[in-house]
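Internal ticket #5521
Category: modeling
Description: The requester needs a full-assembly model to guide mutagenesis choices. All entity lines are attached below as received. Residue total reported by intake: 464.
Assigned to: D.W.
Attached entities:
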Amino acid sequence: MIDFGYGISPSSAINLERFDRARFDRLCAEEPDVLKCMACGSCAASCPTAGHGNMNLRKVILLLGRGCDSDALAMTRSCMLCGKCLLVCPRGINTRHLILSINKIYK
Amino acid sequence: MNYEGKKKIWSEFQKEIPDDKYFYARSCIRQNFNPGAEQAFLDIVRNRFGKDFYEDPLHTTCGGIAYHSDTTPEETSMTIIARQFSLMNQAGYRNFVVSCVTSFGLHSEILQTWEEHPEIEEKIHELLWKACRREFTKPDFLMHSSDMMYHYRFLISEQAKYPLINVRTGEPLKVVEHIGCHYSKIFPSKSVGGAEYPRVLAGLVEALGGSVVDYPERRHCCGFGFRQYLVKANRGYSLTNTYKKFESMEPFHPDLIITNCPGCNYFLDRWQYVIAETTGKTYGDTPGYGIPVLSSEEVAALVMGYDPWDLGLQMHQVAVEPLLDKMGVQYDKSAKYKGPGGKDLGVPVSPANIRIF
């Protein structure tokens, strides 16, 4: 084999057929509001952990939907459950309860 | 279904292609890597179809590679292209044919910019006059060489000696058609079929007897780009794009890849060597040889009976012999590495994982 000094990058494509949706389905059943999220990012913009944590609820929901569970859970560890995201959510999602449910289902 | 509405929508994706009197601008990449393709293209249009196809020896590159690599400003390319238009005016032509897809995209971009910003066009008139005392008017029609092949597809089919049929099975050859991004993704209305359903190569393949492979990554970029391959740190990105396409098309067992872009043609061909040498994997149903990648003009010329070695098919990385055998093309195996007058060009070193004949 020849080393050309560059190579093929591993694919970042996500095959939704291959990941186990059981936990995400359970989350949707227990927290139907998760499907209301329109990914506006108000939660992330108002999060006081910005700058010293990587909590981003918009991204957590996106990652869980894509089957990237461990990345999503790592984000929720910065959450202080202050509830500011709950106050700004334009869809009225109980975000604090949602985060608790995520940690309960994906523990 | 509302067929009238559908017809109206499709009418927006048709392209008017004039039938004669063309002015030709060559491609830098193709001239270097596959010079036979352009020679065959000119020969087909001029001598087989009897059309007036003028090429001015004073024309130059369009500057597209430098522009897309961010090394020259757009005004430089505008002035170069204005000079090409000036040469066209001088020779008395109004229909401008571009050989390269990048160049076609750049010409379209510049004409659109001038349409929306007449003051820029005025500035280019001044710059061209200062640079070489020339004046220009814009062409009536701008076409890519694959537009011409599409326009003449039934004429090519009438003169077909070796249609895209597998002579062993009688089945149509399975052809992957790859459209260069700058052909239809920048200005869909300037292409045949638009960006989502470009018809320019699919129409040609079907007219020549082949069947088009519809695979998931069909419209994915080949990864060529400019900074992607010019900067070594980015080159893996280019390679990965091509790899993604090959992985996607592999289950469909294509016999041939046809492209309309010199850059796509080069990289879909050469990256097969790099993929083979880094992973040991080759594609296609002839183990160890890969999938031949040809331009629309090369395919048309091959179908019309041109000698594959006169066409310069030995300049491709992937060996074309398995394809020639499937099509039933008669060729002299010993003449592959012979130049004009029988001059010996030397046999290239065979790579470890992708074989050559």
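Resolution: model delivered.
Comment from assignee: Chain B touches chain A at residues 232-233, 235-237, 239-240, 243-244, 274-275, 277-280, 352 (CB under 8 Å).
Ticket closed.
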